[in-house]
Amino acid sequence: MQTEIDKLAPGGGSLMIAWQLKGKRALLVGGGEVGASRIGHLLGADAHITLLCPEKGLHPTTKDYIAKYPNRIAYYDRRFTGPAELHKMDIVLTAIDSPATSREIVDLCRQAKIPVNAADIPEFCDFYFGAHIRDGPLQIMISSNGNGPRISALMKEKVQASLEGYEGLALSKIGQLRAELKERVPEIGGSLGRKRMKWMSKICNEWPLIDFTLLDSAMIQKLLDEGWEKDRVPTFTEVCSKPRPLGVEDSSKGHRFGSNILIPIAHFVAGAALMAAVILARRR
Amino acid sequence: MQTEIDKLAPGGGSLMIAWQLKGKRALLVGGGEVGASRIGHLLGADAHITLLCPEKGLHPTTKDYIAKYPNRIAYYDRRFTGPAELHKMDIVLTAIDSPATSREIVDLCRQAKIPVNAADIPEFCDFYFGAHIRDGPLQIMISSNGNGPRISALMKEKVQASLEGYEGLALSKIGQLRAELKERVPEIGGSLGRKRMKWMSKICNEWPLIDFTLLDSAMIQKLLDEGWEKDRVPTFTEVCSKPRPLGVEDSSKGHRFGSNILIPIAHFVAGAALMAAVILARRR
């Protein structure tokens, strides 16, 4: 029988993590189509990129990136030359056609203890990429663990369709609230750190997500004065310094009403109307 | 104006990756509630775990893990003692109440170039965890980049609800198909590797996901004989050696029919029936 622990730890998977690259150095070998997508991921994580690729191998998107981010991408019009390229690198990605060269780079990275990914060669990789959704501070990754990358891409579309579109904005406002709270209570960890986390968690549970999108600096201060300082969660209307814009009035209930009730009602009414028309027509 | 590249590379995020830990060594310092959840993640990724925690600090779930996986978890009833603990470790996680000890461990890891995560102290982390969904080979991670972990947890429920429930099984069958194809065409990378990827991608595009759940070994061989060898994608009925079980007959169309058409029809019919009843009642 499968126990709770078996379900928790089925094995055969990966450790799904959000790697921090702000101010870190990334070496990318290869600037073709896959290389261009890697640059997008690396820039999104604020890495400093060194790109090695003969100019004729550059994808148009890669060229756009190089032109647009000269301070973020150091581009060299040549192939990988040897171990010295790895000096001070924090992460290495290969996106080239030669498995032999990828193997060579991967072996050098292992010796230097630098995490490495070789595109299309899972056997060589310390980590895999997956299908990726980004909306401001929100990031979602879908991995098939190499079983079906195309399925991950199809599932990404489905997950994306299940989002409302304001999650990223709401999260960035929650991040501002958290940052302001940390200004007031700068303790790292410990009992105050835990209390801070619990209060943040509580307001996230009680407020509909869409309400956070309307927070401004004044409201955040009021929320901390009336909420954190008094160890409670104020309602949105308590801290709201301006009327809610039309269409947001009903907050999440509005959305639920829209998708779950209105459409069935419309179908019900359409059915009723058609039946009425049929019966009344027969009566004449 | 925001260009396509700005949307691709907005900065401020993480590199979302699926870290490979099969056969690797992980040091976990702390076995409380957070520690127990870390063990789940590490076992799910097939890591060998060394756990340091005074016995009185063990969460009941941690105790269950230690009892159930004696060959996967080496448990020591003590605190972290110093740099020697990091010997041969590939990844280190702390889940303890003392930020000072976490800081000490993190500094040692940085010197030794070992990736490290300190629970609840994002400032110390090389990587973050997020809300996590697992179904066989399918893994989905939702990260708020530290802005609102509780929101990630709420979004996880939503994403989970958007899944059908057979994605993991379908993906594992696709993985079997891919493995059998690699037996026939073992080339790593190169033009044959690309052709293999394209064919896999094509069948994933053309077959409804649920059909893959019905694949068995004989069907996989037939699919490769009639498909890969002839550079085409056979239909499901061409390779199916047994009748589809009832309820799967219509494959993905069946599902779409179920959720998108049947419910509106039901509401339409209900509306029509009610109106008929009302009108007919008035006629009597």
Gist of the model:
Chain A is of the alpha/beta class and 284 residues long. Chain A has three domains: 18-129, Rossmann fold (3-Layer(aba) Sandwich), CATH 3.40.50; 131-163; 167-239, no CATH class. Chain A is 49% helix and 14% strand.
Protein model, in words:
Chains A, B: Residues 168-234 form the Siroheme biosynthesis protein Met8 C-terminal domain. Chains A, B: It comes from Lentinula lateritia. Chains A, B: This is precorrin-2 dehydrogenase. Two copies of one chain form a homodimer. Chain A is α/β, with parallel strands linked by helices. Chain A folds into three domains: 18-129, NAD(P)-binding Rossmann-like Domain (Rossmann fold), CATH 3.40.50; 131-163; 167-239, no CATH class. Chain A has eleven helices and nine strands. In chain A, strands 4-3-2-5-6 form a five-stranded parallel beta sheet, sandwiched between helices. In chain A, α2 links the parallel β2 and β3 (48-52). In chain A, α2 packs parallel to α3 (60-68). Chain A is extended. Chains A and B meet through β1, α2, α3, β7 and β9 of A and β1, α2, α3, β7 and β9 of B.
Poorly predicted regions of chain A are: 249-264
CATH architecture descriptor text of the largest domain in chain A: 3-Layer(aba) Sandwich
What's the helix-strand series of chain A? HEEHEHEEHEEEEHHHHHHH
- Order of strands, main sheet of chain A, comes to 4-3-2-5-6
Categorize the overall geometry of chain A: extended
CATH superfamily membership of the largest domain in chain A, which one? NAD(P)-binding Rossmann-like Domain
Oligomer: homodimer
- The Cα radius of gyration of chain A reads 26 Å
Please, what is the average pLDDT of chain A? Answer: 87
* Tally of separate domains of chain A: 3
| Number of separate helices of chain A | 11
Looking at CATH, which topology of the largest domain in chain A would you report?
Rossmann fold
Strand content of chain A: 5-15%
Pathway (chains A, B): Porphyrin-containing compound metabolism; siroheme biosynthesis; sirohydrochlorin from precorrin-2: step 1/1
Transmembrane segments (chains A, B): 261-281
GO molecular function (chains A, B): ferrochelatase activity; precorrin-2 dehydrogenase activity
EC number (chains A, B): 1.3.1.76
